[in-house]
Specification:
Elements lengths: L3 E4 L11 H20 L4 E6 L6 H9 L3 H18 L6 E3 L3 H16 L4 E10 L4 E2 L5 E4 L6 E3 L1 E2 L6 E2 L5 E5 L8 E11 L4 H11 L5 H11 L5 E3 L1 E2 L16 E2 L5 H15 L18 E7 L3 H15 L7 E5 L2 E3 L2 E2 L10 H7 L2 H10 L7 E3 L1 H24 L7 E2 L2 H18 L6 H17 L7 H15 L4 H7 L13 E2 L17
Helix pairs in contact: 3-9, 4-7, 10-11, 10-13, 11-13, 12-13, 12-14, 13-14
């Protein structure tokens, strides 16, 4: 089977990961990668941090520190939070010379093959300071949905909003200063030139795209596709290596493909591969299955613009699946670092075992619509649906510890196969759903909890309990590590005997170190 490349694009390097981040792409990507490996699939999981968005500059101004210091501190916080939550990527993207080289090389290839055009584009401009305003530097109304926000990716409708198209634009740093629109020549990728290939590609994905991405694609394809800027007339970012645009930088939101290639290369090297061609694992002849996990508001950058770049270059695999998620709220209000309305992954896993955190974030994950986190609900749900039934199941199972190998019936082998199919339906990339995985875990644990075990069917009970643990292992990482000799999920269910063993118990309070 072809290798599976799992990518969770990095967050902006302007702060730590909160529960909204974890409940969205990061936990999903980790669970997907763990499950694929458990079924014997060659899998590479890459993530990291995005270091060049000008939101880093605006956040640093607000915090009174240097942007370079902020993005370095944020990267360290993100790595620590992922580790605390048991999220273990193979490759983690950092801002270094190799990353810069990867990005420049990618765009030099696009430019060298004639896919970029020099165009005059309108930008909001501050005559008093001589600054062009892009993305985090400018706020206004979205011309598609009218929501208030910055330029770039609209969090409300998901459309990409050119800075010059914002309604009533004003500077985020100097909101009192007058703003005018001024044209500037920049290099763009004319997405309209790739319309036929994009239409064909998204038609193939129509059956698996989640509703909001499907709606965005439909709306975008119903109008002329924009000229997507590759360079911007600002000074924060990677210097653009093109003679036509002196003093400009590469637009950070266009780094998506180069960032992803680099993440996968780092992942491959973490398992011993020699550093080399960054595109090796994406090559068409390698035949990888690429799956992205990201919030719906990033869909334009990765699904549409990123795919257009891959189509332009050719020779590289196109993403097979985009697993998008909606917003996760805290106490029915949007997570906000600036307002202090936030719980980080490290804060939560310092108080509760991370298996409980992973289970609850999965159970309430925003797969298809906004969902909500409250600590009271988490304590109640985890206690009633996970901790209490598991501890009863473990105690019931251990009543047969001294009986040696127990026989397994054909009925039990069939039941195990059915149970494994339900987990596979939720955890395979094509229809991946973290909330469905948690629901399946809850249902199968409840079935074991209701089982009135006798001496005659103790082997069947243990056999199905063992299969349950293996399928639940991508979520309950610490319980599985203590309970199982390995986490492999069998492709065929042929066991004729099973040997009981001691089982760990779950607790509701962390014992230290996030466990």
């Amino acid at each position: 089977m072809a290798a599976l490349l799992v990518i969770a694009p990095g967050p902006t390097a302007n702060g730590d990961l909160h529960l909204g981040h974890l409940a969205g792409p990061f936990l999903s990507a980790d669970v997907c990668a763990r499950y694929a490996r458990a079924t014997g699939r060659d899998t590479l999981f890459g993530t990291g941090v995005h270091f060049t968005q000008n939101y880093i500059v605006t956040t640093a101004r607000r915090l009174g520190e240097q942007p370079e210091e902020l993005r370095q501190r944020a990267a360290e916080q993100v790595e620590a939070t992922l580790a605390a939550a048991g999220i273990v990527p193979d490759g983690f993207v950092r801002f270094d010379e190799r990353y810069l080289k990867t990005v420049r090389t990618f765009f030099e290839r696009l430019h060298g093959e004639g896919h970029l055009r020099l165009r005059k584009v309108k930008f909001p401009y501050l005559p008093d300071t001589g600054e062009y305003l892009t993305d985090a530097y400018v706020r206004g109304g979205c011309p598609v949905c009218l929501a208030e926000g910055c330029a770039g990716l609209c969090e409300s409708c998901g459309h990409w909003i050119a800075s010059g198209e914002l309604l009533d634009p004003r500077s985020t740093r100097y909101p009192e200063l007058p703003v005018e629109l001024r044209e500037k020549e920049v290099l763009v990728l004319p997405l309209e030139e790739h319309r036929p290939a994009l239409a064909s590609y998204f038609a193939r994905l129509a059956g698996t795209m989640r509703p909001r991405l499907a709606q965005l694609v439909e709306e975008l394809m119903a109008r002329r596709l924009p000229d997507y800027p590759i360079t911007l007339p600002i000074d924060w970012g990677i210097p653009a290596p093109f003679a036509e645009t002196p003093g400009q930088v590469l637009y950070s939101d266009t780094e998506t493909v180069a960032w992803s290639l680099h993440a996968v290369a780092l992942a491959a090297e973490s398992r011993g591969e020699v550093p080399g061609d960054e595109e090796r694992h994406w090559a068409l002849e390698a035949g990888p299955e690429v799956v992205y996990f990201f919030g719906s508001d990033a869909s334009f950058a990765f699904a549409l613009a990123g795919t257009a770049m891959l189509l332009a270059l050719g020779g590289l695999a196109l993403p097979a699946h985009f697993v998008t998620n909606e917003f996760y709220e805290l106490d029915s209000d949007k997570f906000s670092t600036s307002r202090g309305h936030v719980v980080t992954g490290r804060q939560l896993t310092a108080e509760v075992p991370r298996d409980l955190a992973r289970y609850y974030l999965a159970a309430t994950g925003p797969d298809y619509q906004r969902t909500n986190f409250t600590r009271a609900a988490m304590d109640r749900v985890c206690g009633q649906r996970l901790v209490e039934p598991w501890n009863r199941v473990a105690a019931k199972a251990e009543a047969h510890l001294d009986r040696g190998p127990l026989p397994v019936s054909a009925r039990s082998r069939h039941a195990a196969a059915l149970s494994a199919e339900r987990f596979a339906a939720a955890l395979n990339p094509r229809r991946f759903s973290l909330s469905s995985a948690a629901a399946t875990l809850t249902e199968q644990l409840g079935r074991l909890d209701r089982w009135e075990v006798t001496d005659d069917d103790a082997g069947d009970f243990w056999h199905e309990l063992d299969l349950f643990l293996r399928c639940a292992a991508p979520l309950l990482v610490d319980l599985a590590a203590e309970a199982l000799p390995d986490d492999a999920i069998p492709a065929e269910h042929t066991a004729t005997t099973v040997r009981p063993r001691a089982l760990p118990r779950l607790t509701t309070r962390a014992r230290g170190g996030g466990r």
